[in-house]
Design the sequence.
């Protein structure tokens, strides 16, 4: 195919080049499909956020980085309040709208290097890279304020939800990722039990 002199391809060469081009196109299409499937496997289909698998992968990387550099990071476990009432009163399509809108609002509060993930249902997580607990608390309050603002549905109805947040900050004394997540989950349970927004 590459030569320093112009020349005509024979019938056999044209046939072989046609076969080669078909193979190349097929390989490129397969690669594209594999990339799309890989992305779908790490993404929540409704909101477009990271899913739990991608969140845990990022968390593993962040913990390894933090252990090497002795730097803190913070994890949120979050759960919408009164979300079931929206599904019950307005239907699941309205619930989907609320999930998408609250996701958008939360994402707007984060830095580019942080990660928001949807775990399923109305449960979310945030990974705040290189973040101490005091700055994380300020972010949590911004998320709470952003989420509780009224939401106008496509039907014209207006609804409101709240959010509860359990927070845990990794330090050099922290054990494993499982311990950190368990602490955040326990703090979320405590916040909901005491009808508070943050613990």
Sequence:
């Amino acid at each position: 195919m590459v030569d320093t002199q112009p020349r005509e391809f024979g019938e056999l060469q044209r046939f072989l080049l046609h076969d080669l081009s078909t193979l190349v196109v097929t390989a490129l299409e397969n690669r594209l499909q594999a990339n799309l499937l890989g992305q779908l496997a790490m993404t929540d289909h409704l909101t477009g956020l990271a899913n739990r698998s991608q969140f845990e992968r990022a968390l593993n990387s962040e913990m390894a980085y933090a252990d090497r550099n002795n730097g803190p990071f913070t994890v949120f476990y979050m759960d919408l309040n009164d979300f079931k009432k929206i599904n019950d009163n307005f239907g699941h399509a309205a619930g989907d709208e609320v999930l998408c809108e609250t996701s958008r609002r939360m994402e707007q509060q984060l830095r580019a290097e942080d990660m928001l993930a949807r775990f399923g249902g109305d449960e979310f997580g945030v990974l705040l890279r290189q973040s101490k607990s005091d700055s994380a608390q300020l972010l949590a309050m911004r998320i709470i304020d952003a989420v509780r603002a009224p939401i106008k549905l496509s039907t014209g109805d207006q609804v409101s939800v709240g959010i509860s947040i359990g927070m845990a900050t990794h330090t050099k004394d922290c054990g494993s990722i499982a311990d950190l997540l368990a602490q955040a989950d326990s703090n979320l349970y405590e916040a909901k039990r005491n009808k508070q927004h943050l613990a």
In short: Residues 167 and 184 are 5 Å apart (CA to CA). The chain has two domains: 1-41, 52-193. Strands lie at 73-81, 115-120, 123-128, 151-152, 158-159, 162-170.
